[in-house]
Amino acid sequence: MTNARRHSGCRTVWLACAYDSRELCIGVRDDGRGFDPSQASPMGHWGLVGMRERASAIGARLTITSAPGAGTEVILVLP
Fold first, then answer.
1. Which of 11, 25, 31, 71 has its Cβ near the most Cβ atoms within 10 Å?
2. pLDDT tens, 26-46?
3. Which pTM was predicted?
4. Is residue 76 within 8 Å of 59, Cβ to Cβ?
């Protein structure tokens, strides 16, 4: 949530959390400037790379959806 506020220029950040006996799902969405996820991260910015590495290390799935002008949504699903 801090990164959303710091980097997206958003006005609002939403957080959702759901779980059942099989998985935990955490989602963060903002209404910021968004970005093209297919482009490489700017030099010196390792946030998304680090998030993907940490998710993989704990066996979670990480989905990042964004587009310029459309905000960003990050969803982590942990079995």
1. 71
2. 999 999 999 987 776 666 666
3. 0.84
4. no
